[in-house]
Amino acid sequence: GSPWLAQQGLRDIDRLRLYELHSTDARLLAANFKDAGRQVQVTSGDGLAGMKALLPPPSRRALVLIDPSYEVKTDYATIYKSLQDALQRFATGTYAVWYPIIARQEAHDLPRRLKQLATKAGKGWLHATLTVKSGKTAPLAEKRPGLPASGMFLINPPYTLHGALKEALPQMQQLLAQDRHAAHSLEAAG
Questions:
Q1: How far apart are CA 103 and CA 160, in angstroms?
Q2: CB atoms < 10 A from the CB of 103, how many?
Q3: Residue 17 neighbours by CB distance under 10 Å
Q4: DSSP secondary structure of the chain
Q5: What is the pLDDT of residues 95-139, one digit of tens each?
Q6: Residues labelled as active-site residues
Q7: How far apart are CA 36 and CA 12, in angstroms?
């Protein structure tokens, strides 16, 4: 998913650093990129800890995509603390945080906390969500597995992204809708 898409957008001068915490998944990820050469590096380990060692990058330009499993409730707080540190180390970086919209308080608090963090740091932000179906339990015959909604929060987003998402999100909603509860939202500051 995300690593493959990121690789497709690389220029010759770009580098991609991938981290995977689960050892089995890290081996699979490394196997998927075995022919990528020096441009892509896969590390078995904690990406948030690895981020600290890589910031600021020599080029002084970077997009950091944070896409954890959120299997542990503390992931939400760890992301917040890691971004606090990252903004101090590398204030001009672009940071993108994917998160599931689920019935967990931490999931609902994360975008609010990230807005406060970005605002306090004097940085622009963009927050997009996409809902494809109701999250409520449906009768067994109608039940479709999978995540009903997710969000993406960016700090220092590219200036063209808001306009592109304003156009793309309604189309994504229409194409991916699984029931009448499909929706999207987009908000930005700075």
A1: 32
A2: 9
A3: 16
A4: -HHHHHHHT--TT--EEEEESSHHHHHHHHHHTTTSGGGEEEEES-HHHHHHHH-S-TTS--EEEE-----STHHHHHHHHHHHHHHHH-TT-EEEEEEE--S-HHHHHHHHHHHHHHHHTT--EEEEEEE-S--SPPPTTT---S-SEEEEEEES--TTHHHHHHHHHHHHHHHH--STT-EEEEEEE-
A5: 999 999 998 999 999 999 999 999 999 999 999 999 999 886 555
A6: 67
A7: 12
Q: How many Cβ atoms from other residues are within 10 Å of residue 174's Cβ?
A: 10
Counting every residue written for the chain, the total comes to 190
Residue labelled with tokens 């650093």: 17
pLDDT per residue over 21-42, tens digit each?
A: 899 999 999 999 999 889 999 9
